Amino acid sequence: MPVTLHVSPTCPFPVCPLQVETEAERQKIISVFKRLHQFLEDQEHLLLAQLEMLDKEIRKSQDGNATRVSKEIPHLSELISEMEGKCQQPASKFLQDIRSTLSR
């Protein structure tokens, strides 16, 4: 099958139709990959932003938990001291006081 050569108005040299098709296909592929690349960049930014928000929520929750536990420590220390004192009492007195201590 003979190949027909065409002369482009902008180029004085003969151009093979297959070369024109090849170049058009190359441009399509480049365009598709540019769009895919942009999509992936957009997804990366979106996911990183979501991850940052999640990280902030976790830190906020951890700070809240640390504050709550810090506030409970003195109360627990007081209960421990009270229980240690009650352990030094005679058994009958200890058993009477333990009910009121545990009900708190």
Could you please describe the fold and organization of this structure?
By secondary structure, this protein is mostly helical. The chain has a domain at 6-74. It is 80% helix and 4% strand. It has two helices and two strands. A two-stranded antiparallel sheet has the order 1-2. Strand 1 (6-7) and strand 2 (14-15) form a beta hairpin.
Q: Please report the total strand number as a whole number.
A: 2
In what order do the strands lie side by side in the largest sheet?
1-2
Q: Termini distance?
A: 99 Å
Q: Given the helix and strand composition, which structural class is it?
A: mainly alpha
Elements, N to C (H/E): EEHH
Characteristic terms for this protein:
rod-shaped, 80% helix, two-stranded antiparallel ribbon, mainly alpha, 104 residues
Please sum up the structure shown.
With 104 residues, the chain is mainly alpha-helical. The chain has helices spanning 17-87, 91-102; strands at residues 6-7, 14-15. It has a domain at 6-74.
Please describe the topology of this protein.
Layout: E1 6-7, E2 14-15, H1 17-87, H2 91-102
Antiparallel strand pairs: 1-2
Protein name: Tripartite motif containing 26
Organism: Chelydra serpentina (Snapping turtle)
InterPro entries: TRIM/RBCC (IPR050143)
